[in-house]
């Protein structure tokens, strides 16, 4: 019988925990690494609705990009929805594992997937390069590359909306007709890293969760920015599902792999 630890060990060969950012609460979140796995679910977020989805589909292992526990529980008050969710996971014996910034940093992971989705060519690292002390492989978060054809800022925003399958986005640009050819991208909340995009001479920067005052700073710096939202990281669901299916066949795990069908973006565009 395949155990959680068998799946985790294989994943961590690809994206080891040691390349995650300091303090990131990755890894085992709830349950046991030694639990049996019959059916696993791949998801971006662990929310009450995704837990219900897992229960309805007889899932016993949830693999998520965003850790379920960013903030420690001080009081296990079950009237708090997040606590009630944890209790439900325990009650149904569902193990939860989170792979966050190790998946963001690894080569062939989150930021390469986003760069590929945007059609960027000749990509390089966005943030300062680090070195895995075991493999000696260089890694970094974010990517910078070139579009095949130059677009105006407005055309680029429309292009992002299409290729990232978005219902809406926010464009931050002093001039909507400014040409965009060189593009930086960083999945998640990347506003504080916009100076890295400037250092790499990017015309535009794609990320999520831009704050009001940071938006002003971006305009003052002459950088076109597309706030495509944090939820663009849901690209991890099909990409990870494909990886796990490949490993399932190669390692004869004999488990079912289910991709969450829920959209966990908290924002609606009206």
Automatic annotation (TrEMBL):
Query: Which GO MF terms does the UniProt record name?
Result: metal ion binding
Which one Pfam family would you cite for this protein? DUF34_NIF3
Q: Per the record's keyword annotation, is Metal-binding included, yes or no?
A: yes
Does Cell inner membrane count among this protein's keywords? no
Coiled coil regions in record: none
Q: Which residues bind a divalent metal cation?
A: 65-66, 104, 230, 233
GO annotations of cellular component type: cytoplasm
Keywords noted in UniProt: Metal-binding
In which family does this protein belong, per the annotation?
A: Belongs to the GTP cyclohydrolase I type 2/NIF3 family.
* UniProt xrefs under NCBIfam families: YbgI_SA1388 (TIGR00486)
PANTHER family noted in UniProt: GTP CYCLOHYDROLASE 1 TYPE 2 HOMOLOG (PTHR13799:SF14), NGG1 INTERACTING FACTOR 3 (PTHR13799)
Its quaternary organisation is: Homohexamer.
What protein am I looking at? GTP cyclohydrolase 1 type 2 homolog
Q: Which organism is it from?
A: Ligilactobacillus salivarius (strain UCC118) (Lactobacillus salivarius)
């Amino acid at each position: 019988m395949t155990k959680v630890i068998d799946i985790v060990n294989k994943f961590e060969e690809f994206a080891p925990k040691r390349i995650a950012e300091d303090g990131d609460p990755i890894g085992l979140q709830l349950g046991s690494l030694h639990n049996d796995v019959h059916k696993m679910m791949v998801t971006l977020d662990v929310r009450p609705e995704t837990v219900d989805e897992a229960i309805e589909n007889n899932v016993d292992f949830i693999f998520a990009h965003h850790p379920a526990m960013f903030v420690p529980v001080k009081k296990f008050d079950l009237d708090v929805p997040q606590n009630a969710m944890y209790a439900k996971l325990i009650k149904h014996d569902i193990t939860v594992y989170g792979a966050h910034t190790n998946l963001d940093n690894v080569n062939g992971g989150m930021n390469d997937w986003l760069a590929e989705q945007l059609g960027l060519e000749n990509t390089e690292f966005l943030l300062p390069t680090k070195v895995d002390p075991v493999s000696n492989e260089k890694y970094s978060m974010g990517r910078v590359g070139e579009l095949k054809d130059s677009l105006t800022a407005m055309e680029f925003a429309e292009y992002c909306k299409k290729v990232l399958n978005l219902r809406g986005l926010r464009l931050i640009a002093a001039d909507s007709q400014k040409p965009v050819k060189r593009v930086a991208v960083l999945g998640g909340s990347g506003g504080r890293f916009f100076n890295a995009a400037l250092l790499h001479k990017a015309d535009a920067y794609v990320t999520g969760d831009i704050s009001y005052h940071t938006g002003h700073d971006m305009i003052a710096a002459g950088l076109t920015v597309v706030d495509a939202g944090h939820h663009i990281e849901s690209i991890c669901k099909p990409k990870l599902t494909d990886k796990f299916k490949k490993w399932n066949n190669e390692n004869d795990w004999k488990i079912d792999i289910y991709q969450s069908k829920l959209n966990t973006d908290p924002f609606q565009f009206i």
